[in-house]
Amino acid sequence: MSFLDTLRQWDEAVTCVDRGDLSEALRIFLSIQDPNSKICFDIGCLHLLKQELEAAEKAFDCSIRKDEHLAVAFFQRGITFYRKERFEESLGDFKRAFKALRGNQLIDYKALGLQYKLYACEVLHNMALSEAQLGNWEKAQENLVKALDFKTENKLNAIDRALQSTLKQKLFKLVEFPSKVLFKPNKNYVAELEKKDYLGKAKVVASVVPQDIFSGFAPLQPQVTDPLIVSCGCVCALLRALEGEPHTVLFEFVPETSDELAVVPGNIVFVLQKGADNWASVVFNERRGLVPYNYLERLEISLASKQNEGLSAPPTREPPTRPERKSEDSLIVKVHFTFTFAVSVPAGSTYAVLIEKISRKVNLPRSSLRSLTAEAKDLRRITVWCHAKEVRCEIHFVALHSYESLNPEDLSFHQGDTITLLSLVNQDWLEGQCNGNTGIFPAAFVEEVPPSV
């Protein structure tokens, strides 16, 4: 299932929940192949609303397997275990949720598409209730006293009432996740689901080819104001101005390399040169590339009357065999530097050519590359280790806030950590290295360290 299909079904299911059709929403969610952690969380919430505790537990298990840092999933699974009166497992999940908070007062999931704030004091409140159910009243009191350190004004009364209940060894009410609150797909992605035609269909106004119906973004033939007043001499002059000989494409051609050109039956291309290997260099739509010559047919252009039937329809027979191309001999060199990359050099290249390619790749002068150590595993693949005298212009950042990775490619760090910049991903995200780990992180979480003089 493609990302767009998943996004579309996710949005449909959330819309069903908004209008109260939980059964239809659950059916759509369950039809999604390979759901992500957020969708699994939504499925668990719907099962929990329908009191289907076994199914809810499995869904939250799946959500946690896909994202072991999703604190709210541990919180919801803890609530599921509590309802099943499995208080030890419930206590374990509440502890994991509190650990995932990493000492913060709360986690606001709004940026991830969930309108919910998970408060540390509420997690500790539920931990205390699980301890009370197990008969550990002293530990229950300790958790509630600890919750006072993380309290907010609107949560204070609930903690005070729970403390009074523990002093009397009476149970108190469980803090539960709000009903019908689910992770929703990114609204910007959803807005792009519907295709928009911004340009409309182009129309040929005039062409030297009779009844030409080709539509594209650039004229393929010389254009005239009125084809009925063009003389034979004008047509000849126009054709002489064209570069190459006009040919009609007979069969669809799908390129396999970057220097080949995609064409479909009916396109008109101009052949610049035909090689001995049956490949032709052509111009089409102001682009140059290679096309098999046996896919083309020479086009004779002449003036025609209004009654002319125009170009004949492309043939329906099978296209000819793709001609073989002569490949140039080259070597693939794998380079170990501060990062690993590969370069391709022609066979028989000198050491200076290889050094020049590597220096351009790592953006360092040739003189700063101290040495290369090579290992040849076969005649066409070589691995080298490259060392530099000095890597200049390093940029460092200091973390203003702690950041916990939400995806495998993210970089986790704590407030005050120093991060070395590797590359700029976009205006909001950077790639860097911290504590021996490499990944991407939000630019808003860090501040650049001024270079030392």
TrEMBL record:
Residues 319-328 have a biased composition (Basic and acidic residues). SUPFAM superfamilies: CAD & PB1 domains (SSF54277), SH3-domain (SSF50044), TPR-like (SSF48452). It is found in: Cytoplasm. Keywords: Cytoplasm, Repeat, SH3 domain, TPR repeat. GO terms for cellular component: cytoplasm. GO terms for biological process: superoxide anion generation. It comes from the Eukaryota. InterPro entries: NCF2_NOXA1, SH3-like_dom_sf, SH3_domain, TPR-like_helical_dom_sf, TPR_rpt. Residues 242-301, 392-451 form the SH3 domain. Residues 308-328 are annotated as: Disordered. GO terms for molecular function: superoxide-generating NADPH oxidase activator activity. Gene3D superfamilies: Phosphatidylinositol 3-kinase Catalytic Subunit, Chain A, domain 1 (3.10.20.90), SH3 Domains (2.30.30.40), Tetratricopeptide repeat domain (1.25.40.10). Its main location: cytoplasm. Pfam families: SH3_1, SH3_9. Belongs to the NCF2/NOXA1 family. This is Neutrophil cytosolic factor 2. It comes from Labrus bergylta.
